[in-house]
Amino acid sequence: MIKVLVTGGAGYIGSHVVKRLAGERYHVVVYDNLSTGFRENVTYGRLVVGDLNDRALLNRVMKRYKFDAVMHFAASIAVSESVENPLQNYLNNVANTMNLLGAMNDNGINKIIFSSTAAVYGADNPHVNEDSPLAPINPYGQSKLMVEKILGDLSKAGQMNHVILRYFNAIGAAADGTLGDRKEKGTHILGCCFRAARSGDKPFSVMGTDYNTPDGTCVRDYINVEDIAEAHVLALCYLLNNNPSDVFNCGYGHGYSVLEFVDTVKKITGVDFSVAYADRRPGDIPELTADSSKIRAKLGWNPRYDNLEDTIHSAWEWERKKHYERSFYGYSQTV
Ligand SMILES: NC(=O)c1ccc[n+]([C@@H]2O[C@H](COP(=O)([O-])OP(=O)(O)OC[C@H]3O[C@@H](n4cnc5c(N)ncnc54)[C@H](O)[C@@H]3O)[C@@H](O)[C@H]2O)c1
User: Residue 120's domain spans which residues?
Assistant: First the structure.
């Protein structure tokens, strides 16, 4: 059996990847401090509750399980928080990643799949391939680019091979209804729309209506979390077959404006929630979609869930289930 360490596997994307790995020939250990993750999300494998800054614990876990590869999801992900508190963002996303890489190096683990982001690209190019200029406009994107560069150097030195996946905007829930985004205070667009739909009076805020886009609002490439999970399985096979380090965009290649997205959420939920129009949010890029021809050609990625309505529908089903369970069991089902 192949053994995989999944940092951040109790979080939103990591947990869907773990669920997907369960269907394959992998042993999984999730390493997570549960700062934004949930025990209940770990539906397969073993959970070690620990922080990436704890080198001694990382070493113990690595010595014990002798992993073949690491999938590294754990990070601070809120762009606005990275703008307000850059030091915390760099500590978690860069310093803690270096701690992880050091422990991997000490334990002879030389394969890593890293969760990067479309935020490493600059604001000038709306449709980007992997060679497009890298010019992040916020500390979150900077921190991910710093790690990409560190991984590049480790690869050049022959110490570690990587696959970097630059995800665009992850949304949705597992099609079988067993997993989804569990956060209550997430800052992503879908969670904010759902909060507006459920609250009845608190509006959804559209941040910026004067961008140079067809309807003045930001355009994004929304990717179903299950297609991201599939990309990880393919990336893992690629690394296990001793292929060289590489970087791939992970998005569909077409986008929706914020207003189009909001209209789709209203249609799926059946709630005509109110919308407020606010100023631009610092750190937002007007338009960004992925050229994903490389991951399709090289990893054979063939996304199955490229349908915004269906994806929002899966997330809404999950949202309703989550709220029913919370009203019954309380916030956490773990006693
Ligand atoms: N959600 C998106 O749309 C998106 C887009 C691009 C990239 N990404 C990247 O994907 C990864 C996963 O994102 P997500 O949306 O699942 O976020 P998430 O917050 O749900 O998951 C992150 C997980 O990491 C854990 N974690 C954070 N810091 C830790 C630490 N120091 N030690 C141990 N565990 C720690 C958290 O408890 C959480 O379970 C992140 O690296 C993020 O930057 C996400």
Answer: 2-172+222-250
Tens digits of per-residue pLDDT, 40-70? 999 999 999 999 999 999 999 999 999 999 9
Considering the domain architecture, whether residues 203 and 140 belong to the same structural domain is answered as: no
Give tens-digit pLDDT for 254-287.
999 999 999 999 999 999 999 999 999 877 889 9
Residues within a 6 A CB radius of ligand 1: 8, 10-14, 32-37, 51-52, 73-75, 77, 92, 96, 115, 117, 167, 169-170
Q: What is the pLDDT of residue 329?
A: 66
CA nearest neighbour of 252 among 292, 281, 195: 292
Active-site residue, from 12, 26, 31, 140:
140
Q: How many residues does the chain have?
A: 335
Q: Which two tokens stand for residue 170?
A: 């992850």
Give the whole-angstrom CA distance, residue 323 versus residue 319: 6
Prediction pTM value: 0.95
Q: Decide if 334 is inside a domain.
A: no
111 and 139 housed in the same domain: yes
The token pair that represents 252 in the structure block: 């569909």
